[in-house]
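Quick question, first post here. What does this chain look like in 3D?
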Amino acid sequence: MLVADAARRVLSSASLGGGLGRASAWYNAHVRHDAPLDPAGPAAVLARRAAERGLACDTVAMMTGAAMTSLRLATAEIEAARFTLVLTAGLANARTAGDMAEMRSLRASPGPAGTINVALIADVALTDAALVETVATIAEAKAAMLQQAGIKSPVSGRPATGTGTDATAVFARADGAPIEYSGKHTLVGETIARLVMTALASSIAGAEEARRAG
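> Answer (accepted):
Ran it through. Tokens below.
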């Protein structure tokens, strides 16, 4: 859970507060794998749980079945601007883009099990286009690290590119001259990708150590 001192611009795929808007907090809610699905739906459940914790109504919130021991935080600074990445990772739901989907209708909703959730807090302003490019950079870095770690999709056996229920949020300052580009040619893009890869690699290694320890 992260609370900002002022509302930030955000682009996210979160169940609560998703899309392009402003938010003053990020909440990553843990949900047990064996918990029954609430008929109210994920957004209503997250709104209720966020309110119970005293979070503002503009909170961006996600669900995950991943253990909180998977939580990793990575930071970097560029020209006095800090970039902070928070990640939780569960891999039971690993998939490769293009795998046969279990949900065979347009409006079916997957559950929260085994999810890689990412929040990036950038201490700079980003244009709308740069927000989108940052989400893409995070997705590419995540896929690259999963492939480097040898994670495979149980559906196709191909190298995993994520999980079936990943969620991402990018928070940026609401004031100041915005950065226009955050792709692979830029220092911003390089930094963000390395934060993702560092955090995800550590989380995967921690899960493997725990599995070996029994």
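The longest strand covers residues 19-30.
The helical segments are 42-52, 128-148, 187-213.
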